[in-house]
């Protein structure tokens, strides 16, 4: 449906250009990234022949749409969000060749008031061409900085005095920061702490502060400068402490940061999603790595122990996920998340062994209290917190299954829909599909939800469980290799799917319609080997609250098998359903 919605928006903009302002307002409310907005706009995608008369009629459309998009970029920046002119250049070159983009920018320069903007974007396009070789070689931003600034002569004797010198410095610095972003986008690490180190090596403290002050005035750089200031402040704190101490331990460095004020609870709880807060944590983790590189020991377990001393494990998990999903910060977060997950799994295993129902764990984790705003996209601390908590709970459901306990997908949906609007649940599961490792589970739950939403329609239409059965996942249950090496059904999943279909049977009966247990058996034995059906009923006994019903199914199935040597009786003996005399 997401692709369908985008296509409808493109059609709306194409047919009614005035509607763009309304659509862009909706995008802005959800803080839609300008890159995503660009690809949803109906900008002609075919190549515009340079100088070709037959294609010139496309220019007014292209320019109008790009001007509209640049207006959206400005509004996006006005919210305090970063999207530099270099990123604009990156988006424009994502589906057009460089020559065509340069031609578009030449046209844009002729639009009143757009000359300087077009020139800045053009610098970004040229910069993308220049960066290519360095990025392929994965050259460190520190080395690139030295090369780029070798000809920039501003020093403490003339800083702030020559406007032309400032223009050169800021232009070079903006280009370098874009290189840092490209470097990070490759999954390579270069924190704001490292960034501050590079600046401090080449400039004194007052110069760096003055440079940051001037850089703050560059469009789209406000948030970036704020993060750089946190890195600089941390670097200065470490450098000052090392004057008196030979080495600053990670514990001491941790309390030099503002991590707790930004990430701990209380009045600052809403700052969880702040890039500045995450930058503080990333800077400290980078210092830990630097500490280790000097031959000292401070393991990831030590890191977690220190963090958990101040931040609850469940909350820390959400913070680390946010850190992982932020450009340039995933490098440190991923191993910590794995380690934290292993610790958590031990708790989950204890709960699962004691057969603590996922419905009870849902309340223990306080998931219903997490705020999720419908239509606000996946950005923002509240959205991220709600999705992280849902991911935690679904991980417990999987652990519960691994102990051969059953909690059907239908039951998962029932729990979710009993605490949230159906529309919210749908949107959360759709977003969860993009979380690494959650794609399949989210897809299964969306399918189960779709089935349940259709229950009412099908029940009102009088569709019998026999008619509905082929439309439900249970009908396509597949065999997988078991631990013993033989092929068998994926029992936790199959039992969950069988439970969902029985739920439909029960709802059908509540309407006063007849569908007996014999008919349930008829449907199953018509589509599955008798041995599988016997084993299904045998394992269904272990589903919470289903022992009596499973025994009833088994008795009916065995009563129908009049021959002593029938497959049903034979397999029942193997499963231990019947006792030998």
UniProtKB/TrEMBL annotation:
Protein name per Swiss-Prot or TrEMBL: RxLR effector candidate protein
Domain of life: Eukaryota
InterPro entries per UniProt: RXLR_WY
RXLR phytopathogen effector protein WY-domain domain segment(s): 513-555
């Amino acid at each position: 449906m997401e692709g369908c919605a985008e296509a409808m928006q493109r059609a709306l903009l194409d047919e009614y250009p005035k509607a763009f302002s309304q659509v862009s307002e909706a995008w802005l409310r959800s803080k839609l990234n300008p890159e995503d907005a660009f690809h949803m706009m109906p900008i002609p995608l075919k190549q515009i022949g340079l100088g070709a008369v037959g294609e010139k009629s496309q220019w007014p459309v292209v320019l109008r749409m790009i001007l509209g998009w640049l207006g959206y970029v400005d509004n996006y920046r006005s919210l305090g969000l970063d999207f530099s002119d270099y990123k604009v250049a990156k988006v424009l070159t994502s589906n057009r060749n460089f020559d065509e983009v340069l031609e578009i920018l030449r046209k844009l320069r002729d639009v009143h008031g757009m000359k300087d903007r077009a020139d800045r974007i053009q610098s970004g396009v040229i910069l993308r061409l220049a960066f290519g070789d360095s990025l392929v070689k994965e050259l460190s931003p520190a080395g690139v900085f030295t090369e780029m600034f070798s000809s920039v002569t501003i020093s403490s004797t003339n800083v702030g005095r020559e406007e032309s010198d400032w223009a050169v410095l800021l232009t070079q610095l903006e280009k370098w920061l874009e290189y840092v972003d490209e470097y990070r986008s490759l999954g390579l690490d270069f924190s704001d702490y490292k960034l501050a180190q590079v600046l401090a090596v080449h400039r004194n403290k007052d110069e760096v502060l003055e440079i940051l002050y001037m850089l703050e005035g560059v469009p789209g750089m406000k948030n970036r400068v704020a993060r750089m200031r946190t890195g600089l402040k941390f670097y200065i704190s470490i450098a000052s402490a090392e004057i008196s101490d030979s080495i600053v331990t990670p514990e001491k460095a941790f309390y030099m940061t503002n991590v707790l004020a930004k990430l701990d609870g209380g009045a600052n709880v809403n700052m969880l999603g702040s890039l500045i807060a995450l930058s503080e944590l990333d800077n400290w983790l980078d210092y830990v790595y630097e500490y280790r590189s000097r031959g000292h020991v401070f393991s990831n377990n030590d890191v977690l122990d220190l963090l958990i001393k101040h931040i609850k494990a469940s909350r820390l998990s959400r913070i680390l996920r946010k850190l992982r999903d932020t450009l340039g910060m995933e490098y440190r977060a991923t191993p910590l998340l794995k380690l934290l997950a292993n610790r958590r799994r031990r708790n989950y295993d204890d709960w699962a062994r004691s057969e603590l129902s996922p419905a009870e764990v849902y309340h223990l984790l306080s998931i219903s209290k997490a705020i999720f705003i419908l239509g606000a996209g996946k950005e923002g601390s509240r959205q991220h917190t709600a999705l992280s908590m849902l991911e935690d709970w679904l991980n417990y459901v999987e652990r519960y299954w691994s102990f051969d306990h059953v909690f059907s997908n239908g039951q998962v949906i029932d729990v979710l829909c009993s605490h949230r609007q159906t529309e919210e649940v749908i949107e959360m599961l759709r977003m969860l599909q993009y979380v690494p490792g959650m794609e399949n589970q989210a897809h299964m739950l969306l399918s189960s939800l779709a089935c349940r939403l259709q229950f009412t329609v099908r029940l009102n239409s009088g569709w019998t469980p026999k008619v509905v059965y082929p439309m439900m996942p249970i009908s396509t249950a597949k065999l997988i290799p078991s631990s013993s090496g033989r092929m068998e059904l994926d029992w936790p999943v199959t039992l969950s799917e069988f439970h969902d279909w029985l739920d439909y049977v029960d709802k059908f009966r509540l309407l006063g319609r007849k569908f007996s247990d014999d008919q349930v058996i008829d449907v199953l034995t018509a589509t599955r080997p008798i041995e599988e059906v016997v084993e299904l009923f045998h394992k269904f006994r272990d589903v919470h609250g289903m022992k009596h019903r499973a025994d009833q199914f088994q008795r009916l199935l065995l009563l129908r098998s009049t021959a002593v040597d029938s497959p049903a009786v034979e397999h029942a003996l193997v499963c231990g359903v019947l006792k030998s005399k």
